[in-house]
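Table S4 entry, D-2-hydroxyacid dehydrogenase.
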Amino acid sequence: MSGTPETSLPSTLHQALAALLGPSGLLTDTTDTAAFCTDWRALYHGRCAAVLRPASTEECAKAVALCHAHGVPMVPQGGNTSMVGGATPDDSGRAVVISTTRMKRVHSIDHADLTMTVDAGVTLKAAQDAAAAEGLFLPLSISSEGSADIGGVLATNAGGNNTVRYGNARELALGLEAVLPDGNVLNLMRRLRKDNTGYALRQLLIGAEGTLGIITRAVIQLQPAPRARETALCAVDSAAGALELFSAFRKQDPAAVVAFEFMSGTSMALVNRFIEGAGLPLSEPAPAYALVELSSPRAGDGLRSLMEDVLGEALESGLVSDAVLAESETQRNALWMLREEHAEAQKRAGASVKNDVSVPLAAIPTLITEATAACEALIPGIRVAPFGHIGDGNIHFNLVQPEQMDAAAFSARDHDIMDTVAEIVRRLGGSFSAEHGVGQLKTYMMPSWRGGAELESMRRIKNALDPQGLMNPGKIFPAA
Ligand code: FAD
Ligand code: MLT
Ligand code: ZN
């Protein structure tokens, strides 16, 4: 049985969109649109008047112009992996979701410039694979890369596992094309490494979470493929121990460290419990773990001896109590799986509250100690399961519901928990959202964190480009 549209588009708009996009580009049946109206975490259940799936920039621009002319709100969506409800429409049913999932062309790979030109709807994994097929490397890596799209990772300025060496998505984008809220196309595909001609508009679109326009194409910087790689999982006694180890590697060769990830004993235990095939390759569970990866474009670059020297010393001094080095690509994948399945394991463990925070590196141990005590005092039995990109100062200070607590009752405390952690983060000079963005989940935090001239400037920019407030309403900005 097929569902029915819960709200209809104005009929003139419906007809024009149907003529423009064809049957596979316009979905109005609720059985087809439902998946676009719920987020990965199932925190939000919105409704939409339709899902538009343009296949090109031109189609996207025309569709946006039509929606703009009819005053219809638009929600850009890529792989729909947002952790903050950024791509989910509200429940009014007025908005259309504009999905880039049919814009899937890898246009070109340039070996002289070390760049690739891709459509927004190419998944990050497909872009990585296309680069690898030409002996190159796209150095952005996140656990959701099989679903997340280039447009989505740029719109959220995604970080991930290689940020410590290569920076966030922002640092990797050399060019951008976007459809503005009125349907005009902003072509910034110049792909120049040097270009000081006025405002850096592409950087404005990156990280704007779809509130200023729809990214349709991008030029992404690549690297030569790594020819040497060493990966190790290390048992440490705490986040402070992990940081000391990070510093030991960086002192030897900062350029060699491409990833340095932290996992608490609690978060690793959830992976071992909930993910099939996961197993700890160490003699016994530890209070905490660090996953370190070194790489180089030069074969035989001495990475193995660098890894062995640093770990040898750390084992001798007791900084590391046990460690395992990957001896093959299969073993490397098995080590990375333990890290990459953290989000999925926590999802299976019940309701959770995510605090995607960053603080200066030296403040991480204090953050973990103080936030653990505060959360345990707030909700006895809460499972404190921090992990994340410790080399970037970015900890996912995630909390999982107590075993016996009702999931809804735990979720109802989300603001108490987020505020408790956020106040500690604020005192330590950090940010309440290091990489997931604000979305709709954290809009309420914006006035106290980014208030005054900062939020007012953001509002003015938003009003200048989108005076009707049609592009991704309800995201980033708290309701007036
Ligand atoms: P969506 O979820 O579809 O959208 C995200 C936001 O971008 C929304 O505001 C949406 O409106 C907007 N948007 C989407 N496409 C466009 C476009 N073409 N133009 C303009 N706006 C657009 N994030 C990290 O930074 N680091 C991580 O390590 C990380 N790990 C993750 C692991 C898992 C398992 C999951 C589920 C998520 C993770 N995320 C991480 C969060 C998420 O932000 C990223 O997966 C990714 O950046 C979102 O891409 P997407 O295509 O799914 O975007
Ligand atoms: C990750 O790094 O795996 C995700 O960003 C984290 C999360 O689940 O909070
Ligand atoms: Zn992350």
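The first helix runs from residue 11 to 21.
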